[in-house]
Amino acid sequence: MSIPIHTVDAFTDRAFAGNPAGVCLLEAPRDAEWMQSVAREMNHSETAFLSPHEGDGFDLRWFTPVREVDLCGHATLASAHVLWENGVLGPRATARFHTKSGVLAAVRREGAIEMDFPARPPKAAPPPEGLAEALGVRPVWTGRNVDDWLVEVESEADVRSLRPDFVRLAKVDARGAVVTSRAEQSGADFVSRFFAPRFGVDEDPVTGSAHTALAPYWAAKLGREELTGVQLSARGGLVRVRIAGERVMLGGSAVTVLRGVLV
Question: Of 4, 110, 130, 225, which alpha carbon lies 20 to 30 A from 259's?
Fold first, then answer.
């Protein structure tokens, strides 16, 4: 049986930028070992696996090349894009995903895709031993949510110039580390980079799930509910965020760059 699989660049409106995700369309669920093998073969930061959910929507799981994760933004955006682009969903339909982080939804809004995710604000906490040294930074503020450490630094230049020690960073007990500052470039409110060597991803190009912490953090700090974040990876990407109570709306575009089949 041939299984459709796509590569989609997410949080960008042009090919070969943003964050590439694998999207695998299944007629029925497959076992975790098989999905992990496919994700290792695709070698993207995450590959998404979609299968019809009993009742409505789709079951959605995400795998890095080395393990399953509980929440992923860019591969969810890529999944919704594939469903609309391939006519699986009508152009005005809502994409509903049943995941380990609850039900997530995506809609088309103002020429982009907007996703409804849980807000995961960080709580102030002293950095664990080795975190600042592994990142090579002097933190202005540090905090932790259920997934990651969030580290604010003094300037956008500090975020750009980061050269982490990934061996040391992988020893920190967290999914990853988000390093952020207020934006100095026009058209953005804050910038960030995301590192998760413990999960097999040294630097993620654009991280939707990290913005579930960045959005409430910067919204509180800047006193606004709608913001624009730019991730300063080599590929770069833009995430529009909107606070809605205990939820965060993550907005962005996506471009399909490859269509194929698993044989």
Answer: 110
